[in-house]
UniProtKB/TrEMBL annotation:
It comes from Rubinisphaera brasiliensis (strain ATCC 49424 / DSM 5305 / JCM 21570 / IAM 15109 / NBRC 103401 / IFAM 1448). InterPro entries: RNaseH_sf, Tc1-like_DDE_dom, Transpos_IS630-like. PANTHER family: TRANSPOSASE. It comes from the Bacteria. Pfam families: DDE_3 (PF13358). This is Transposase. Residues 28-160 form the Tc1-like transposase DDE domain. One of its GO terms (molecular function) is nucleic acid binding.
Length: 192
């Protein structure tokens, strides 16, 4: 947990969020975030029979990092996209206009963290043009974003898959989005 959460201003914003969130209709919420995926991902732990040594190989040479973007609704992941490398503000605005807004319905509430690329006017305009509302989580509060739990599961699945090429990593990301069903997605949202 970030120590910044104890700052008075941040603590007040977190408390206000926790008070107001139960009044929001979960069916209308779309939590958004991005995460990384790499071609060198392996599971950090494993199991083996007692008395046996666990041996697993992990590449330490050249690997490629990509960014996975998605929204989380009560029905699962929406508008997933994988891009090469990191994203910037222009790429995020393009994603919102071309991908995310297609997954929105009038009356939805899109919830973002406070990354500077998320706070651009074009982002708000595109979301509002789709009939949705834009809200931001309190700063230093990834624990209040349920998509973080989904990303934790996604990374575990990617580590288990051990994909070593960008193409296979991207294909696997696409296949894994179907592994986030309605029950699990609702649980993620209720837990946060």
């Amino acid at each position: 947990m970030a120590s910044e959460q104890h700052r008075p201003v941040v603590a007040r914003r977190r408390a206000t969020w926790k008070i107001r969130q139960p009044g929001l209709n979960p069916e209308r919420l779309v939590f958004f975030d991005e995460t990384w995926a790499k071609t060198n991902m392996t599971r950090p732990r494993g199991r083996v029979f007692n008395g046996k040594r666990l041996i697993a190989h992990t590449p330490h040479g050249h690997w490629k990092t990509t960014t996975f973007l998605a929204g989380l609704r009560t029905t699962g992941l929406v508008a997933p996209l994988v891009v090469d490398g990191a994203i910037n503000g222009d790429m995020f605005v393009a994603y919102v206009k071309q991908q995310l807004t297609k997954a929105l319905r009038p009356g939805d509430i899109v919830i973002l963290d406070n990354l500077s690329s998320h706070e651009r006017d074009e982002t708000r305009q595109a979301i509002e043009a789709a009939g949705a509302e834009l809200r931001f989580l309190p700063p230093y509060s990834p624990d209040l974003n349920p998509i973080e739990q989904a990303f934790s599961k996604l990374k575990w699945l990617l580590r288990s898959a051990k994909k070593r090429t960008v193409v296979s990593l991207w294909e696997t990301c696409g296949q894994l989005t179907d592994r986030f069903g309605e029950t699990e997605s609702r649980n993620f949202i209720c837990h946060a």
